[in-house]
Amino acid sequence: MSPSHIGALIPIVAIVFGIGIGALAVWTEHKRKAQLLDQLHRERMLALDKGVEPPAIASGLVGYLDNANRKKRVEPRYQWPRAMRNGLVFLFGGTVLYFAIEQAGGHEGAMFALVLAAVGLANLIFAVVLWKQEKDEPPPPRKFD
Q1: Residue 103's closest CA among 73, 145, 95?
Q2: pLDDT, tens digit (0-9, with 9 covering 90-100), for 41-54
Q3: Any idea where the domains of the chain sit in the sequence?
């Protein structure tokens, strides 16, 4: 085999093994959970056949059986600052990218940078709408668990 053939095989093998390892991890985790659930089911059915109260399933044994173990996400009090920040980042980033590509001599390619600026402008409009909405109607009080 020539070095050029080996060079062509390296990315193919890397992609196949990378996807294969990910698929193997998903499959083994599924089999582990399926086996655990099967054992729990058999144990509960045996307890019911004997007339004994079946044991309770521990929360979070197989995954998130309930929301008790799930990490609670704290919602910010106001939503408009995040939309404003994202809008400014996209608007300024798209504008700077447009002028940078234009300066480098690619007028046709520079037009695609304006897509980022348009997304930023849309986020800024969304932030204004949210700001007016949240100003008129204050959000419900936060719940601290």
Answers
A1: 95
A2: 999 999 999 999 98
A3: 1-70, 80-136
